[in-house]
Structures are given as C-alpha cells and as structure tokens.
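Fig. S4 source data, part A: sequence.
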Amino acid sequence: MAQLKGRSSAETRSAVLDLIRSSGTVSRSELAVLSGLTEATISKIVKALLDAQLVVEAGFADSTGGKRPILLSLNISARYAIGVLLDARTIVYVIADMSGTAVHHMTAEGYGKTPPPLVIKRIASDIQKLMRRAKLAPSDVLGIGVAAAGRLDADGGVLRRSRVAEDWEDFAIDAALHDATGMRVLLENDANSAALGEFWSSRMPATQDFAVLYMANGIGCGIVIDGALYRGASGNVGELGHMTVDINGPVCFCGRRGCLEPLAAPLAVVRRARADPELIRDIGVRETLDDETNVREDFAAIARGAVAGDERCRTLILDSARALAAALVSMVNLLDLDAVYLGGPGFADAAELYLDVLREALGHAFAREVHPVETRLSAVGIEAAALGAASVVLHRQLTPFRARKSSRPAGARVAVISQPSAI
C-alpha cells in the first residue's frame, strides 16, 4: 500500500494516531502494515505518542506463534474538547473525550433576541461551570468548538444569514469567546460540525466518503472525503437547501426560485399546514407565524401527527421527504458517496418516515449496481452539531494532516490559537 507519510514528522505522527483512533485497538506490526511505514518508524512514533500520553498499551493480541503483540489504543481521557451549539432556542454544551464521546452535557436557554456580547458572556460562564463539574483544568482542554447555522464569509467567520438573528451578522464569535475564556476557539457551520462528529464518534475510517444531511430550521449538508471536510472554494460546500428541485417552485429567501428549503424545510411544512384550519386546530399548530424561532415546535407537532397516523400530517411530511430525496440523489450521483446520515433536530420526530423515502430513492442512485449507499440516522443523535463542534477541535488538534486538507481558503481569518497542537 502507499506509505502514510505527512509533510512533516508531526503530520506523520498524527496520521498514525488517526489509524489507532479508527482501529480501536491495534498492534505495532498491524500499524506498519496499515501505514506502509517500517516497523522501526512505527516504534519511534508510538514511543512519542506514549510519552505524550495520547496512546496507551491495552493488553495483548493472540499469539501467532511468537511473542504476543501488545495492543495500542487511544488514551481517551488524555485530553478533552468542548463543543457548543449556538441556536436561537437552545444552547447545547458538551465535553468530549478524545474518542469523540460526550462525557458531560448541559443545555441552556438559546440566544433569542439577546445581544451577542451578552450571550458570549453567558456562554463563557456556562463553560466554566461545566468544566468545574467535570473537574477539568484549562490545560486539560484542547479548545472550544462552536457550531452555528449560516455561511462562512470571505474572512472565514460565520455570516448568520438568518431572518431571526440579524444581530449576529458579521459578529466575530470566535474572537469574542476567546477573549472571554482565554481558550482556543474554532468556529464551524453546524452541518460540517455534525459530519465531523459522525467521523470521530463512529471511529469511521478515512476510506469512507459520506455526508451528514442536517435539518434544523434550514437544510444543510456536511461532506467528508478521505477523512477531511470537503469545503470548496470559500468553505461553503453543502448548501443542499439551495439546490433547485423545481424550476417553477416558490421563491426562496436567497432570491432564487424552486430551492429545496421552501419546499421541504420545517418552515415550508408548517406554512402548508396553516392552509388547513381544521388540521392546525387538531394538532395545536399556531394560526399565524409570530416568531420563526417557534417553527420547530409546530413542525414537531406535525411530525408526531404523521407518526401517529394522521394522514394529513403524513402527506405533509412525505412531500417534504420526497423533495429532499430528489436533491439528495443528485448529490450522491455527483459525489459517489458511500453513505448518508441524517442529523439535526428536524429529524427528531419523524426520522423513520424520512429514512424510508430516502432509502427508496437512493436505491436508484447511478452507481447502485457498483455499491449500495448506506442511509441511516446519525449515530451522534439529533444534537449532532454540539458534539460535532467538539470534534472540530479534536480533528484540528489531533489530526492536523487531515485538517490541512480541508482548510479554509487563503486569506481566510485564522481562528484564535492560544494553545499548541496536542502532538
């Protein structure tokens, strides 16, 4: 096999560490085979990883006739990462160990209409509380990852592009939170965060190319190719919600006609439900749209109705799923993906209905006779973006050779760094 060698010794070490992570347990001789490196080089790298306490010896493998080989595994409690999902309704915090598993979890009120500086101050206070609860010192934490909806601007920040959170437009979340905590902060799109969370927590090998379809208020997609986020020219890959699925469809808030979001997103489903006064009375949907932050509650009521057998609700959800399937099959045909996972709060209540439609549609993907496309719920769960935000830190700090492949374009603002790489 091709030799797994980075541009520097640090990158090569990180590549070997990634092999140990995805393998669970592995011997030195197996690492040599998997990496294409010599056993002498592997022994030197493993010694450095053991000295840094990033790897531990974890028993013995079965003997094949000689001395039983020692197994290695990730030292999951050596370092931790904090993930924050920044949302208008709820702010979710997680502390993840090095395997990408959440070991502490906390939820708090969302940012709502509160000015960003006050929200950042509250987030910093909540993080300190969570670290005290976990008995962690700042030196134990690699950094803070923040997942937020929106698109990246030319400077690498998040342009909120939200009709209900205009105060966050161009607000430098990463710099503000760094100033409030003194810790390294990395900012990422929520769908990209969910995809990296899937990669880390599932111990997924870098050979699997996949996407996480993420639905909250809108619809986005995080794509991982060769173990790295695929970002495109400006870091804005994955805007599945703005793929055209009906050229005669309704006008989208982006200015184009027939995008997926005004056909399939929770707001679109709720608006169609409001056209039926009897339905909204029966399931408790509000008659008017007072605040788009309440859309998810109304959508959840429709989804629960669909699962319970209400044919009116079921029709609404299936129409959404079919539009989603049309866009998703096009994306899978374009990228030839191995798998698609569903994540985000939009799939919390009617996931199986969506899965049935998507699986049937992906059964007709162009490469179906070559390989199937696995389709299932994210292993991380509906709060995938929060844990994924912590995984963004793990990915950047522990496997910089992969983070480099998916780095933002030249000229983009570099996230605040106050701690060196872990390896």
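Fig. S4 source data, part B ends here. The longest helix spans residues 311-335.
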